[in-house]
Amino acid sequence: MLRRELKVNIKSLILWISIVSLMLIVVYLIYPTLMQNENIKMIDELIDIFPEEIINMFNMDIVSISSVYGWIKTEGYMFICLFGSIYSSILGANILWKEERDKTIEFLISKPVTRKQIVTSKILCGIIYIFAFNFIIFVVNMIGLLLSSQMIWNEFLLFSFAPLIIYYIIFFLSLLLSVVIRNTKSMIGISLALVFISYLLQIIGSISSSVKILKQISFFEFVSIRYLIENLHINYIYLIIAIIIITISLFIIYIEYNKKELV
User: What is the mean pLDDT of residues 26-53?
Assistant: First the structure.
């Protein structure tokens, strides 16, 4: 079952890795050319006129974007987290639902496999592919930064693998939604909404202290680059919350899928 799942979902993994990797490679190729002395001065002058809230939102008060490593720790990190979360949400929403959509579930349940085995193979596939996505992006960034002669290893390793927390939260919640929601036609839209609403909550919550509570309930805050840079470790409270969310989701997925009418 697992081998089948890995084979069926490989194309989407390659597509998403290619998209994100290509964008990062373009940045590594053109950034050194863009960041000449005159351009750095212009950027510094431009940043000076930005409101303090905007500067804080993109962490430019603690990180300079005059180098590609600085870009990775600000806009680049958010870009990777956002695209990784979108991939995780689509994978989670699709991995069980597509069997019902394509009517292949009838073939699966006719085989000597249990529903538990079906769900387990889907979950293991998702865990493996999300890790593979994250690892290959890590390798692309590592090569790019080494060639740029810019690297702080303890920071880099931390913010390279911390996003796995939000990816797995999004994956398991999307998988859960695909099991409990009856109107499966809107499944992808709901899962993507989960990502973008969470992203917007962090952005809005970072702009003003009066709505700071909004970013505290955003999944993106679980792996905040500001917190990682300032503390050099993951927020343990958020890590515990993430484990609880994933564990509860996993428990409900097995229960609900066992009761669900598939044909």
Answer: 68
